[in-house]
Amino acid sequence: MTEHDSHEPMIALDVGGTAMKGAVLQSDGRVREYRRWATPRADGPEAVVNAVMTAIDDLITQAPDARSVGLVVPGLVDDQAGVAIYSENIGWRDVPFREMLMNRTGISVGFGHDVRAGGLAERVLGAAQGANDVLFMPIGTGISGAMYVEGRSIDNKFAGEIGHIDAGTGEICACGATGCLETIATGPSIARRYNALTDSSVTGAKPVVERMLAGDGTATRVWEEAVEAIAHVLVQYVTLLSPELIVIGGGLSAAGDHLLEPLSASLHRRLVWQEQPRIVPAALGDNAACLGAGILARQALSDPAVRLGL
Ligand SMILES: [Zn+2]
For the domain 129-282, what is the CATH code? Predict the structure, then answer.
């Protein structure tokens, strides 16, 4: 391992379906500068790949002395190979991002999955510090999990798809299976279910929560069914892997205690002999995956395997 100047900054980029969040981070992990771009998803996958490269160029212009870059992307991701295998949201297939970025920038590259990177950031900097058995579960337009078991991250590219566990809804999921948690507990599915029962046209979970708080019985029912479905699936996770801590992130966590209190109560009621995990909100919010990309960038500097090819 080559010694590097500890004051050199790192570059981080989190590519999402609607926005790309970039940062220049100091070597101690503090953010020197944030940048945000729209993801040109409507222009096709090639345009998004080009936008990622342009964003990295822009960040390097801000920090020409950067020695490493971290990139995280959604979908099916092979962290080890450095390849974005597939994203239904963006439409790309088999993009060898690590190699492309190494060739383009000539500096070390950390690469990974956005939710796993978010979990890494929560564990290193956020709500899961000091916990070894953790589920980090963002609930937004989708639901997935970053899993730590006995202190180790489960990086299998097919693992963590907790949103596609059968919650017994009987509805067909976008993935092709029936009954998945995502058919009842994501922001869009909560809105869809509420709209179908009330002839409304709300978008996302927020207006449903607001109507529940205003005394709307249908909103209360739709919300409670979503919470119960999440608890139903979490019982299975807890029974298999016994996390000490469950960190809830994503857009739905903005509901705060309206989500966490009934969810904790339902989970604790359902668990009979299992250890009761603590359920807490994510600490890093929207920036978790970008900060996780920064941690991957720092790890890339000290990981000889990632330095090969430099
Ligand atoms: Zn599914």
Answer: 3.30.420.40
pTM above 0.85? yes
Strands (E), the chain: 10-15, 19-25, 31-38, 68-73, 76-78, 83-86, 93-95, 108-113, 134-138, 146-149, 152-153, 245-249, 278-281
Q: Give the CA radius of gyration of the chain.
A: 20
Q: How far does residue 233's CA lie from ligand 1's centre (Å)? A: 13
Query: Residue 4 has what pLDDT?
Result: 47
Q: What is the CATH number of domain 10-118+287-307?
A: 3.30.420.40
Q: Residue ranges of the domains in the chain?
A: 10-118+287-307, 129-282
**Cα-to-centroid distance, 271 and ligand 1 (Å):** 25
CA of 65 to the centre of ligand 1 (A): 44
Per residue in 101-139, pLDDT tens? 999 999 999 999 999 999 999 999 999 999 999 999 999
